[in-house]
Amino acid sequence: MKKENMKDSKLKNFNPMALREKYSAKSLSKKNNYSSFWLDNDWDNNSSIFDDEPVKKGVDLVALASYRRAVSNFVSIVTGMSDIKVTFKSSGDSYTDGKQVVISSKLDDKLFDSTVGLALHEGSHIKLSDFDFLKGLEHHIPQEYFNRAEVFGWSRYDVIDKVKNLLNYVEDRRIDHYVFTSSPGYKGYYHSLYEKYFHAKVIDKALQSSEYTSKDWDSYIFRILNLTNKNSDLDALPGLRDIRSIIFSSVKNLKSTEDAFSIALKVYDVLLDNFDVNLVNPQEEEKEGQDEDGESPEGGEGSEGNGGDESSEGMESSDGNDGKPELSEPQKKQLENAIKKQKKFMEGDIPKKNLSKKDKKTLESVESAGMKYVDVAGDMTDRWSGKKTPTKVMLVKKFTKSLAESDTISMIYRPDYSWGSVDESQEAINKGLAMGTILGKKLQVRGESRETKWTRLDSGRIDKRLISELGFGNEKVFNTSFIESYSDAFLHISVDASGSMGGYKWINTMTSISAIAKACSMINNVDLVISFRSTQSTNGNHYSRRGDKSFPLMLIAYDSRVDKINKIKNLFKLLHPSGTTPEGLCFEAIMKEIEPASKDKDSYFLNFSDGMPMFGNDDIDYHNDTAIDHTKKMVKMIRERGVKVLSYFIGDDYDMERSNSTFTRMYGKDAQFVNVTSVLSIAKTMNKAFLTK
After folding, report:
1. Which long-range contacts (CB under 8 A, 24 or more apart) does 591-596 make?
2. Bridge partner list, 622
3. Which residues of the chain have pLDDT under 70?
4. What is the tens place of the pLDDT at every residue in 519-544?
5. What is the pTM of this model?
6. Measured between alpha carbons, how far is 446 from 486 in angstroms, rounded to an integer?
7. 13-35 burial, b if ≥16 CB within 10 A, otherwise e?
8. What is the DSSP letter of 325?
9. Where are the domains of the chain?
10. Would you give the DSSP letter of residue 381?
11. How far apart are CA 253 and CA 178, in angstroms?
12. Where are the alpha helices (DSSP H) in 482-623?
């Protein structure tokens, strides 16, 4: 694929293998080749501290959203088409309709890579396959092929079905060749795909055995489907070598679905020449082996694993009289399931786990909010183990109404868990917006410019009012002007939303940030972003159980560049404090979101907090000096970007006395111990920073 043909420039330099190498474990198991970047190793830990029964773990929708986004990027890169939609199966068919790629919602290390490979495969079909040609296949098959099939007792539908199967196989080889030659970096995902569907141990053994060696359709199609298997025996059936040569000698020259169709007909010709007309009609045989409901008495489709490999281990098999291995009866049953899986793959009808309607709706909220995990604290060393202890922060890029109405993040008000009421928060916000009008007038000088003019100068521009004085020997008839103004400003307010901020602290803080937001909306050259930081459990609740994962949570709730001031009035009332205080971890997660100062723009970072940082999960112990020093380091990094840092301490006199030294240690001399409900106090500290040239 040529890069210049790609529609989305952001994807041009995307390297999935580099990401895989960066984030995967140093020693990768067979079940975790590429997926450690996307999924946690403890994905399936579902134990509970409350009882001995396993707890059904909910889907981590943030990880799922990242997963879909990644697969979508992969498909866009491989196909060069950014408009191919990648969606989870919620109902209906599991195969692509020529417009979108449908993927399974089941996420774990074992299945991730094969799912990516399958998505790439289906996406390439959308790009290269002619679905209209496939729909009208009956009209493309010459009548002679229908006539020749009558001797085998095949109906017109049987012929169409068999030719279609052969075409699907040849078309798949054409698609695979395209991906392997245009995007060789994706071979790893394709290998995982074929490991799952075509390289089961029971398939390997069957290819070496006398199974499926009759000159009938089932035997030939089994052998054709596995021509790429290293155990394939080309002498197992007459004409098999010719079939392999026809397909693989021509695949690199196939330019269209119609080209693949011509090859499929050549293969069909060979099959018709070699079928044994005296054999029982395979379809009649199939009907005899089915129960009244049409299901095989030997079981369903099997698991989503690799054809039942694990259970085939240790099963007895023996060598036949011809020296070829013979399959045991349990192995034969496994073989049937593995072949079913291969046929479904060839037909494009691959079973995929549904995403519930509820989860799908929530997922849409997650994706619209731009939720993702951000790696932080990569250089931090645990004081007990001495090991590096990186962790992840759950970052929400946009606070939306749908997110507020969902149960996705713990920062949303819930009557059963939250203190106070929505009405109390609404009252505090309304008060702040009213106060903001007053504050805005006091800060409005930020957006004003002032012209100072000097006249009667020796040089400059001629002052028309003084021209008449030239005749009287006055040569100082020039003037000049100086326009004094302030640069544009970027202001990021970060609010501690931990549980200790509840009560009057939260009410006062909501009043204050609402006032500042209103004031900034009155100034034409100030952009404002407001974020909240707390913690989050993967179960979406305020508490976590064993098996759940806890993360620092960073919510970007308001951005004046895209949001209206009414958003604060309508949505901020639904926010409430919960969790612990992962200060520096959250600061690190949004470092790229804080605009650095430049020649044309001043940048400010305002922090609201009530004290000590703390957080802990299985990855990191973030307390005391570790947390304080890391927070201090992050604040220093913010300052190194040219950003002016202001910190407001939220609390009473006792809190201030107890935390004074710690707060100053983290945030420096600019830390402010002020009454944040006082407009005058806020105006004084902000003016000091804002109006300093």
Report:
1. 591/634, 591/637, 591/638, 593/492, 593/529, 593/531, 593/556, 594/490, 594/492, 594/638, 594/641, 594/643, 595/490, 595/492, 595/527, 596/641, 596/642, 596/643
2. 615
3. 1-59, 91-96, 107-110, 279-323, 382-384, 415-420, 443-460, 462-475, 477-485, 538-548, 651-660, 673-684, 686-693
4. 889 888 889 999 999 998 765 444 44
5. 0.70
6. 6
7. eeebeeebeeebeeeeeeebbbb
8. E
9. 3-347, 373-446+487-690, 450-484
10. B
11. 11
12. 504-521, 566-571, 583-589
Residue with tokens 């599991």, as numbered in its chain: 94
Query: Are 27 and 106 in contact, with CB atoms under 8 Å apart?
Result: no
Separation CA 16–CA 77 (nearest Å)? 10
Q: What is the pLDDT of residues 452-465, one digit of tens each?
A: 566 666 666 766 66
Instruction: Record the tokens describing residue 432, joined without a space.
Output: 């702040």
Q: Which residues contact 421 (CB under 8 A, 6 or more apart)?
A: none
**CA dihedral sign, ordered 253, 254, 255, 259:** positive
Pairwise CA distance, residues 593 & 557, whole Å:
13
From residue 574, how far is each of 410, 455, 504 by CA, in Å? Answer: 11, 59, 16
540: its two tokens: 């979406």
User: Among candidates 576, 618, 557, which has minimal Cα distance to 392?
Assistant: 618
Q: Which long-range contacts (CB under 8 A, 24 or more apart) does 278-281 make?
A: 279/214, 279/215, 279/216, 280/216, 281/152, 281/153, 281/154
At the second CATH level, the architecture of 373-446+487-690 is 3-Layer(aba) Sandwich (3.40)
Give, in order, the Cα–Cα distances in Å from 296 to each of 3, 194, 293.
Answer: 49, 25, 9
Q: How far apart are CA 395 and CA 371, in angstroms?
A: 6
CA–CA dist 445, 590 (Å, integer): 30
pLDDT tens digits, one per residue of 111-128: 778 888 888 888 899 999
Residues 106 and 352: their CA atoms lie apart, in Å, by 8
**Whole-angstrom distance, CA of residue 118 vs CA of residue 122:** 6
Q: Where are the beta strands (DSSP E) in 53-147?
A: 85-88, 100-103
Dist. CA 213–CA 322, nearest whole Å: 13
H or E element in which residue 608 lies: strand 601-609
Helix (H) and strand (E) counts in the chain: 23, 17
Query: In the numeric block, which tokens belong to residue 26?
Result: 């140093």
Q: Residue 244 in contact with residue 227, Cβ under 8 Å? A: yes
pLDDT digits (tens, 9 = 90+) for 135-170: 899 999 999 999 998 888 899 999 999 999 999 999
Side-chain half-sphere CA neighbours of 624 within 13 A: 3
Cβ-count burial 161-198 (b if 16+ within 10 Å, e if not): ebbbbbbbbbbbbbbbebbeeebeebebbbbbbbbbbb
Could you give the 3-state DSSP secondary structure of residue 659?
Answer: helix
Return d(Cα 36, Cα 28) in angstroms, integer: 9
Alpha carbon distances (Å) from 146 to 158, 177, 270, 276: 9, 31, 15, 17
């106060």: which residue's tokens?
A: 435
Residue 511, C-beta contacts closer than 8 angstroms, at least 6 positions apart: 428, 429, 431, 432, 435, 676, 677
Per-residue b/e over 425-462, b at no fewer than 16 CB within 10 Å? bbebbebbbebbeebbebbeebbeeeeeeeeeeeeeee
